[in-house]
Amino acid sequence: MKKQQFRTLKTVCGLASILVLGACSGMPGFLSSSGPKAPAGQTTKRMADDALNALCTGRADDALTILTAEPLVSPVDQFFTAVALEESGRPSRARLLYGKLMQSGSSEYVEIHCGGNSLANGSVADEAAKRLATVSKNLAILDANLRPNIPLHTGLPSASESNGGSGSSFMSLGSATTVTRPGSQSPFGQWFAHLSSYMSLENANKNKPTLEADFPALAGIIDQWEVDVGGRRAIRLGIRVENKADAERLCSAVKSQGKYCAVIDTSS
């Protein structure tokens, strides 16, 4: 009788796992929790099952691979990818996508649930805004598992690493110029006045106060930008601006004080 009960239990668990992965193994499931529903006449968009499975079982890298297998066309696709980026420890790249999606104003309705944990339940623009706020506030915490690697450079970045600087990147140009806050400074600006680079967010955060001490006018607006430099992950510190001329003026002022600065187009 006990063997029969065990076989019955296995059958029930097998059927249940179609709806809730891990109901019998302790792993998170994917049943939608209660919450806001899409407006009448609008379809709720959900992540593909295989990607959701990976995301909810701690395999966000696999989810990202699945989601980016084809070109990202719709705001919904981009939002799901941003969530996978964030969950896989790439908050800087996720933040850029969230910012663009928030500005897009997309009203398409998305929903992501891992068991009782709701990662998204609303319009793309609204959910992107929520997650952008969280990422911006907790960026250091989200990347706390990074190894404390040494900086990419022991002093100033090389001209080749600056990827876009022209001429001498840090030669003093006569009398020092006062560094002022750029008028078009924006976390979503296309142009980046690059000040320094590090191999981990931890090291970047440790050295950010040094930059703020050197340039008090930039305190509170120094941004992080995660990029790939020669096959290595780098965290760039600098100021994002919407106007290229503002970035050039800022770099000229920084370089006049014998410091490194390079203007980079983040859209390229």
- Average pLDDT rating: 73
How many DSSP helices? 8
The helical percent reads: 25-40%
| Oligomer description | single chain
Please tally the β strands and state the result.
7
| C-alpha termini separation | 68 Å
The dominant shape is: elongated
Which value, in Å, is the CA radius of gyration?
23 Å
Structural class determined from secondary elements: alpha+beta
Outline the low-pLDDT stretches: 1-35, 140-174
Q: What fraction strand?
A: 15-25%
For this structure, the CATH topology of the largest domain is Serine Threonine Protein Phosphatase 5, Tetratricopeptide repeat
Main sheet specs: 4 strands, antiparallel
Which architecture of the largest domain does the CATH hierarchy give at level 2? Answer: Alpha Horseshoe
CATH top-level class of the largest domain: Mainly Alpha
Order of helices and strands: HEHHHHEEHEHEEHE
Question: What strand line-up does the widest sheet have?
Answer: 5-6-4-7
The number of distinct structural domains comes to 2
Explain this structure to me?
With 268 residues, this protein is α+β, with helices and mostly antiparallel strands. The protein has two domains: 19-142, Serine Threonine Protein Phosphatase 5, Tetratricopeptide repeat (Alpha Horseshoe), CATH 1.25.40; 146-268, Alpha-Beta Plaits. The protein is built from eight helices and seven strands. A hairpin with a 2-residue loop joins strand 5 and strand 6 (232-241). Helix 4 (75-87) packs antiparallel against helix 5 and helix 5 runs antiparallel to helix 6. The model is unreliable at 1-35 and 140-174 (pLDDT under 50).
